[in-house]
Amino acid sequence: MTPKRGKQILYLTQKDVVAAGLGPRDVLKLVRTALTQHGLKKVEMPAKIGIHPLPDTLMHAMPAWAPGVKACGIKWAECFPDNYRFKLPQTSGLMVLNDPQTGWPVCIMDAIWITAKRTPAVSALACQKLARRDTTEIGIAGAGVQGREHVQVLPLVLPKLKKIKITDRFPQVARKLVADLQPTLPKVELVPCEKPEQIVRGSQVVVTATAILNKPDPQVRDRWIEPGALLLPVDFDSYWEWKTFKRASKFLVDSLAEMQYFMTVGYLAHGLPKLHAEIGEVIAGVKPGRQPKDDLIIDMNIGMGIEDVVVGLEVYRRACRKGLGRLLPL
Ligand SMILES: NC(=O)c1ccc[n+]([C@@H]2O[C@H](COP(=O)([O-])OP(=O)(O)OC[C@H]3O[C@@H](n4cnc5c(N)ncnc54)[C@H](O)[C@@H]3O)[C@@H](O)[C@H]2O)c1
Q1: What is the pTM of this model?
Q2: Residue 94's CATH number
């Protein structure tokens, strides 16, 4: 069911996007392609622009074009941390995919699923290049959508992983995550923790997926961090002391241009430490990953439109093949 060029678009609900049937390894492969293209500077992706209706909220326009895979479009993504008051996830979004030959829109799809899946895929690919090879324990702060997705994807890339510790500002949320997901992960012990210290001490990788704050509210004392740890904040510097950031052997981001944009609208008040690389450059092999002399490594990824359009194009293609979604007139 392919839309008639210039006459129709395909509309995909979240249910349709899920039914397209991409598995975690498909998403890892697609995200690796997106990051590699980004690292080789073969994409067009201006830094996102945004509006901020309430304090600590954001709505972002994320256009991207990957000529190598002919993926182009734009994600309109929202993050409202207080949405729990309305019993809604904080992250939402829609994506428009376009035909690169005519420019015409071909598909509008829910982007919540793609955001949920591509973000931990970036963390997982970063682990392969930047984590200690002997990683046995991970800590995760934030047991929401991203916490759940990271718990499911990181074991795929860390063969020696034995334990994942999870904390949340609402302890029952971390306990529920463990109760729900432990049966699906027989080889890894999931442990709900009350305090940030418990998830950080002894962990070779720590992911933070809490809330992006204008002004950081550090929850982790630098001295708790394991030698040679890899920190993967997907929520900026919100959870960390600046002195931790400053002492990293290697500091990476996904897109420097994105970070510079965020600084213009009041985030990252301390600025950034000296940059080793963008993560795509490491994935593409242009810059080195972890080296023997490295201690702490931090890779702070805020998410890039290029990941969304590359994954979104594959969702669209599969949806067309499977007859999913609804054709709408333009
Ligand atoms: N970098 C990226 O590509 C990317 C993509 C999606 C989401 N995010 C960010 O990841 C974060 C989580 O997103 P989500 O969709 O999982 O949200 P969510 O609302 O589903 O989950 C967030 C969880 O974090 C918990 N939390 C909030 N503040 C906390 C704190 N100080 N300490 C401990 N727990 C805390 C909440 O109780 C909630 O359970 C947000 O900051 C979001 O903006 C980043």
Answers
A1: 0.97
A2: 3.30.1780.10
